[in-house]
Structure formats: C-alpha cells, structure tokens
Amino acid sequence: MSRKQSASFDSQNGNIKPNVIQINVISQTSVDNHAPSDTETNIGDNKTSLSSKKTNLHRNLKERHMIMIALGGTIGTGLFLASGQVLASSGPAGSLISYVVVSIMVYFVMTSLAELSTQYSISGSFNTYASRFVDEAFGFALGYNYYFTGVIVIAGELVAAEIIVQFWLPHFPTIIWPLLGMIIIFILNVFTVKSYREAEYWFAMIKVLTVIIFIIVGLLVDIGVLGHVKIGFHNWKIDGAPFYRGIDGIVTSSIVAGFAFAVGITAGESANPRRDVPRALNGTIWRIILFFVGSIVIMGLVIPYNDPSLAHSDAKNVAVSPFTLVFVKSGIKPAVHIMNAVILTTILSAGNSSLYICTRILYALANEGKAPKQFTYVNRHGIPIWCLVFTAFLSTILFGLSFIGNKIIYRWLVNITGVMGFIAWFGISLAHWRFRRAFILQVYSLNDLVYKALFFPIGPIIASLLICIFVLGQGYSASTTHPFNFSNFLAAYITIPVFLIVFLVYKFVKKTRFIPLREIDLVTDSIMFHQTKQTSNI
Predict the structure, then answer these.
(1) Residue 225 in contact with residue 92, Cβ under 8 Å?
(2) What is the pLDDT of residue 520?
(3) How far apart are CA 500 and CA 506, in angstroms?
(4) Which of these, 113, 102, 184, 97, lies nearest to 146 by C-alpha position?
(5) Which residues sit opposite 24 in a β-bridge?
(6) CB contact set of 194 (below 8 Å; sequence gap of 6+)
(7) 38 in helix, strand or coil?
C-alpha cells in the first residue's frame, strides 16, 4: 500500500412479518483448512497477523451462488405479503416513491459493506468492522443485536410455517410442521457449506422466477391481454390516488418497505472475495431494485390502493397477497395454492439462511473472546457445530413462546426486531464512513482500495439519515393511535435503550474507547497490504 508518511495505530483485541429485516452478511469468516492460519508480518514495533484468530470454516461459494443468493435473499414474505400494506398506506405513486427511496438506501449500505469486505480478510461479520473502526463496545453490541435478530427471525419463520401449512391441512396437529421445518434447515446446515449453498441457490431461483413471472403476468393483465379488461392507469386516477395520505403515507409506507428489504452479501464465504464480491454486487443491485420497484409498479397498476383485501395481506391471509390478487385477475385459478407453495419455500429459505448466518456470527463472537470459547469448536466438515446446535435450540425455545398468551409474547419479540435490522445497517454505514476518513487522514492512496464505494461520503451519510428517520418512525402509528397503546409504543422503541445499555455496560467493564481516526489500524488483515508484503518477499 502506498503512503506518504507512516501512521500510528492501536491494534484492537483481536419474512412473514413485515417488520423483520434479514441481512445475509458474513464478512470473511471462512478460511480454507489448508491455508496458513496465522501469517505474521512485522510493521515497525508492532507484530500483527493476517488472521487474528484461527478459523477452520470452509469457503466454498462461487460467483453464481453469491449472485443468486443475493437476489433471493432480498425476496421474501416482506415483498410477497407486506407490499400490499405499502400500497394501501400510500397509494400507487406514494408506494413507488417509498420503494425508490429505500432502494437508494440499500444501495448505499451494500456498497459500503462491499468496500470493507473486499479490503479486509477478517474473522467476523460486519460487527468486526464496527469494533475496529468505531469502538469495540459498539461492535460487541452490534454483534449480539444482529445475532438475536436472526434467532427471532428463525422462530418467526417456524410460526409462519405453522400458519401456511394450516391453509392446506387445517385439522392436522400444528406443532408438527414447525418442528419438521427446523429439522430440515438444521440438516441443511449440519453437513457442509455445499449443502447450504445448493439449497439456498434453488430456493432463490424459485423466488426470482416467481417475481419475473409476476411482473410479466401483471403487465399483460394491465394492458388487457389477460383478464379481458384493459386497466391501464385507471387505478392511479381513482379518488385519493395516486398519493394517498400524502407525505404521511409515504413516510409510513417507507418504514414497511424498509422492512421488506434484505441485504444479501455473502462475502466471507466467497472463494475469491476480491473478484466475486464487486461482480456479485454489480450483478445484483440493479436487479434487486428492478424486482422491488417493478413489483410495486405492477401492483399499483392492477390493484386499487383501496381494495379491502390489501389491509389483510399478512401471513394468515395468503389468499389476499397482492401477488395472489394479480394472478387471480389473470384467470390463473390455482393462484392461491401456487403462492402458498412459494411462500412456504420462502420461509424455508429465510430459516435456512438465518440459521447459517447466526451460527457464523456466534462463532465469530466466540473467536473474538466475546462468547464462550466452546463455540469456537469446528467439526471436520468445517461447521461450528456447537454454535449451530445452540442457535437451533434457542430459536426453538422462542418458537415455544408463540403458544403462550395467544402468541402475544412472541409477537412482541418479533416487533422489536424491526429496529434491530436498521441498527445493523447504521453500524455498516458508520464503520465505512470512519474507515474511509481514517484511510485518507493516514495518507493512504485510494488506488489501494480493492473496491471503491460510489458517492462517498454522501452515500453513508444519506443512508444513516434515512435509517434514523425510519427508526424514529417505527412508533409513529403507535403514538398517534386513539386510545394510546403503550405496549405497541414500547415495542417500537425499546430496542434502542437495550442496545445502548449493552454498549455502555461493555464499554464500562472493558474500558474501551472511541478510536481516534489516526489510531485506527488499517494494516492488519488488509488484503492489499498482505499481497504487497508477499510480493516483496519473492
């Protein structure tokens, strides 16, 4: 890496529910078993290692897996079901603006993460970047925030599986199906990364094809080729459209739209992240935007925003999913059963990827000394088996809460995970912003970056501001309802003080500090620096 002067550094130690964000990110947790576990370099008086902790997870994802998993990772029950609530809240034009705004935010977050994950080969998820570039306490809180978000998501998918199968078999014992679902995703994760990648690849393929077919069929319905009635822009001209409830509607629906998105970057499982991550990002971000924005455009054209069915487009009413409504208008009679099957596939996909990611997050935390050391054990297949078993057990316990008080406890838990996802996105944006500022302040050349995020610093700043708006908007509806519902209001905001408490307690106990920009370690684990060092030794 080229520099004009030396810099000092201080090496650090070491969608059934519309309000759940799943971020499929593992940043460099996988190191091939045959690779050296610790490559040491001497920099002045500081001795650092390329891999601060030995990791034996397998790195097996190819570019085609990353692209398809990234695409499929963004498509879930948030799009298939919650998008109907977006249309009902703000009308066709308002919902379109909501999705465009959220798409821009997602793009900035993805490019920020891509720059970090291609520059550093580290053991951990994006919380490791927060520990390194912001504050170790911030990374600790972010890591557990993301881990428990995933655990609750898995439990939520088990509940969703119960509801979906009841649609076909209403008199069969309901507890059988969630347990069967957990067994299936556990088996997919217990053997090798290959079983995960292939299962997730085909799950993603089904979802992607469903969206493509939906857009084509919806367009044919709108122009009158199917359904025998030409709709055109009629639904944009009905009373109250196209901007139903104005700015208020757009803000409200943007929150739901944000929950429907997921960021799908699996950088750490790439066989060649330097090459594959930028290519996968460039190959997916515009497709993601096209799928989401294209879907909401079709819904706004074909379905009136005031259709009573949209208000009930949730897990218990697959028959009124906006996707189902469009297929029904086309004359496809088994549309309800088709969408039920697709949503069931989506549930298995979300559970599969969440279990995989949570397992790696817990492993990374243990590897950094932030979780019991027993969780660092990796079996001969390259699977952190105790992390997998514990995560599956914890998710099953949380699923059991759904049987208490008519699912009230479970619903409350799921509601608070919405803001957790936004906190994760905020952590990525903040870590990237501080990394780039330190990079420039310590006089490194931007040419040494493997991947440069466009629109820096505007990108992470805009993303952070939008995230703050969405987080504050979480409890807007709860605070304006009459009578005031304190339980819903508390569920909307309680995650923020909990996160701050975890952050402050760790900071007090470990006596961590907010790392000055000049002291941020930009050398350890840097892919470019390691390659330069290897070249100089040849």
Answers:
(1) no
(2) 93
(3) 10
(4) 113
(5) 264
(6) 60
(7) coil
Is there a contact between 462 and 105 (Cβ–Cβ < 8 Å)? yes
Task: Give dist(CA 88, CA 214) in Å, integer.
Answer: 19
| Inter-residue contact 236 to 86 (CB < 8 Å) | no
**pLDDT tier at 287, thresholds 50, 70, 90:** confident
Alpha-carbon span 141 to 119, nearest angstrom: 23
**8-state DSSP, 239:** T
- Structurally, what CATH architecture does the domain formed by 24-30+54-537 represent? Up-down Bundle (1.20)
The structural domains of the chain, with segments of one domain joined by +, span 24-30+54-537
What is the Cα–Cα distance from 248 to 119, expressed in whole angstroms? 41
Position 528 scores a pLDDT of 63
In which residue are the tokens 């919902």 written?
Answer: 95
pTM of the model: 0.80
CA proximity to 319, closest of 302, 343, 297:
343
Q: What is the pLDDT of residues 11-27, one digit of tens each?
A: 333 333 333 444 444 44
Q: Which amino acid is at 284?
A: T
Q: Could you read off the pLDDT of 377-386 as tens digits, one per residue?
A: 998 888 899 9
Residues 6+ away with beta carbon under 8 Å from 74 = 261, 262, 263, 264, 288, 291, 292
pLDDT tens per residue, range 235-271: 998 888 888 877 777 777 777 676 666 554 444 455 5
Both tokens of 478, joined, read 């709860």
